[in-house]
Amino acid sequence: MSIRQAMLAILEQGPMYGYQLRAEFEQRTGETWPLNIGQVYTTLTRLERDGLVEVVGHGGADETDEAADAGSDRQHVSYRATEAGRGEVSEWFATPVPRTQPPRDELAIKLALAVTLPGVDVGTIIQRQRTATMASLQDYTRLKRSGRAARPEEPADLAWSLVLDALVFDAEAEVRWLDHCEARLRRAATERTDVRRDAPAASTTEGAAR
Amino acid sequence: MNAVLHLAAVTRVHGEGAAEVHALRGVTFRAHPGELVAVMGPSGSGKSTLLTLAGGLDAPTSGSVWIEGTDLASLDNAGRARMRRTSVGYVFQDFNLIPALTAAENVALPRELDGEKGRVARRLALAALEEVGIVDLADRFPDEMSGGQQQRVAIARAIVGDRRLILADEPTGALDTDTGEEILRLLRARCDAGAAGVMVTHEARHAAWADRVVFLRDGVVVDETGVDEPDELLESAR
Predict the structure, then answer these.
(1) Are residues A122 and A182 in the same domain?
(2) Predicted confidence (pLDDT) per residue in A16-28, tens digit
(3) Is A100 contained in some domain?
(4) Each residue's pLDDT tens digit, B137-161
(5) Per the CB 3.0–4.6 Å rule, which of A153, A182, B24, B88 could disulfide with B219?
(6) Which stretches are annotated as coiled coil (chain A) (predicted)?
(7) What per-residue confidence (pLDDT) applies to A79?
């Protein structure tokens, strides 16, 4: 995902330096996806090139220590969303996130290869992955049931708790999918044995119907 | 050995000859005070059998089941029934409350069966209902309560009289997501307060509330999250 729209949406609230922008983004998303400051400035530069943000001024007395330490001119620059930028933000909120181009899923690719390449023990891969995903799910749940996500007091806490839920549901879906893969593979293995045992008397359709 | 529940190399075979089914094959399993353990696995993996054996409702074909240091095989029927009433609390998917009894009466029942005087049993029941947050519903009948409230009553019934082993079979199965989480919070709190909990579930999201998740398949523990203490590992290797 590009952080472009997310940054633009935050800038719509008012002009900000890169460091402020990063802090706002992380605070609003429960620090789940840490941003590299270089990435923030690269994105800002591109947004400026595309006419979606503009520079509002250089330096100020209230800049953060962090920004001052960084020393570069660029970090003293504050940005705001342009009219076109605001349009892009409304457009972003109004449009569903597309699933037409699924993100490259390392696990799905790994299993697809494991199933088609010789000499790989798919069952073990599935079991290990499920245990690891389950352990992450336990970690998310621990975070969820303690601290500010358990008793949200302000919108940022609620946002953090919803981000955690997203991770929880995602991990849960992965475990379910792994269960499904395991069941499918076992059934396929049984069918293969049945077909071999019944051959040549029984037809393959009978074997597959079991 | 300080485990509240200890299954030692437990095997359970149903049926005979060609119809023989190995529900569990040499499973060793422990639940310690303060620990909530989730048991996951596909249908037929043996997870319900494990819970039934742990609750003394069925006996293993071989191996032994220990609750608070007592081998269940060393008890007669009456002794096992007493152990079930005093040490083990059961929570079921469909609540299993007695419709003709109020919440407080349902919760008091195991104490009364155990010979406690009605007044004392009711006081214990109210304390348990207080703990699960529905003491104000004490005099309602099950059909006057929501599913989540009924499951709270069932949990109160499972913990009344300070029982230290809570066995839960798909406790959130009949509840919506939010209500289910409230029930898990209660089980979790009870375990944090020192009980040992064993919960069978097929939902990873719910199993994630446990300290340890054990995966069963074809009657065998195939994996688990959370690492045993090193001395435990040595013990089970012996």
Answers:
(1) yes
(2) 999 999 999 988 8
(3) no
(4) 999 999 999 999 999 999 999 988 8
(5) B24
(6) none
(7) 93
CA distance B192 to B35: 7
Residue B207: list chain A partners with CB under 8 A. 134, 137
User: Helices A18-28 & A155-198, crossing angle to 10 degrees?
Assistant: 60
- A88 occurs within a structural domain: yes
Indicate if ipTM > 0.85: no
Pairing of strands A16-17, B212-217: unpaired
CA angle B57, B62, B65 (to 5 degrees): 50
Report whether pLDDT(B1) > 90.
no
**Euclidean distance between CA atoms B162 and B89, whole angstroms:** 9
Domain count, chain A: 2
CB-based contact, B224 to chain A, within 8 Å: yes
Residue B210 has pLDDT above 90, yes or no: yes
Partner-chain residue, chosen from A138, A169, A183, that has the shortest CB–CB distance to B225: A138
- At A39-98, the pLDDT tens digits run 999 999 999 999 999 998 765 444 444 444 444 555 578 999 999 999 999 998 888 887
Chain A residues near residue B225 by CB distance under 8 angstroms = 131, 134-135, 138
Which residues span the domain enclosing A146? 106-209
Full domain range(s) for residue B108 = 34-59+86-226
In this structure, is residue B231 part of a structural domain? no
Please judge whether B185 and A145 are an interchain contact, meaning their C-beta atoms are less than 8 angstroms apart.
Answer: yes
**Does the residue B78 lie in any domain?**
no
